Amino acid sequence: MPTLTTDDAVTLYYEEVGQGTPVLFVHEFAGDCRSWEPQMRYFSRRYRCIAFNARGWPPSEVPEDPAKYSQARATADVVAILDGLGIDRAHVVGLSMGGYATLHLGLTAPERALSLVVSGVGYGAERERQALWRAEADASANRLRSAGMKAFAEDYAQGPTRVQFQNKDPRGWREFADRMAEHSAAGSARTQQQVQRERPSIYDLEDGLRAMTTPCLILNGDEDWPCSLPGVFMKAVVPSAQLQVVPGTGHTVNLEEPDLFNTALEKFFAQVDAGRWPLRDPRAVSDSITGVMPSN
């Protein structure tokens, strides 16, 4: 079983397939490295593909110390995977919790990323909803501890941005929910309270986002409600970002619409690898609506 050890002595499990330019996939809270199977199979034809389980997700280690979990640590684990596999730079693709780690990589270690795919990022970001987000993170942790992983997963997998997947692809959704039920309740609870609950709002990162020049694709489902406005905000402030929205789709976009997701990534990687991914034209940022300003 392939593993590596981080600088704080936590063992991480990873999977690797293919040859070529590296692509690193970083999973969401409800997923694990298996969630990236449609991407691993597709992109390994041309790329070196890596997916790993976050700390708290067996067979990665489940640290007992809550201080071992944080947004900064989740981002550092992405770097640990790159370092452990001898990779200087990679295309980094993250969904939700993994999307936050990917975005923070772009802020703290942009030299390690060829590009950033930031998908499903925005939960709890809006300031007027932060108190509710933190309360729900606490409630999730409490339910994980009291009811266990299987009961929690069945409810969580039917949330308002998951039912789209259930309605569209019942067999795929069932596999997703069953895999989530196999996760560690302890690791998931600690992640809810130490990572999800405590991470900074996207809106508090504005200064760093405005300075970001690493090629960035923001990719959301149009019914992934908590990510809609944060996605538009990131598009507006990150000069290297483009925003793509997948219609009729919820949070689990890479599993719900794998063909559309893969096509979007394929075109993005091709532009980046060719050195053709543009920064936004400064003329596109203006207080004017049409460019024709009224005279005083």
From TrEMBL:
InterPro entries: AB_hydrolase_1, AB_hydrolase_fold, AB_hydrolase_sf
Residue ranges of domain AB hydrolase-1 in the record: 22-258
Domain of life: Bacteria
GO molecular function, one term: hydrolase activity
GO CC terms in record: membrane
Keywords from the named record: Hydrolase
Annotated PANTHER family: AB HYDROLASE SUPERFAMILY PROTEIN YCLE (PTHR43798:SF31), MONOACYLGLYCEROL LIPASE (PTHR43798)
Protein name: Pimeloyl-ACP methyl ester carboxylesterase
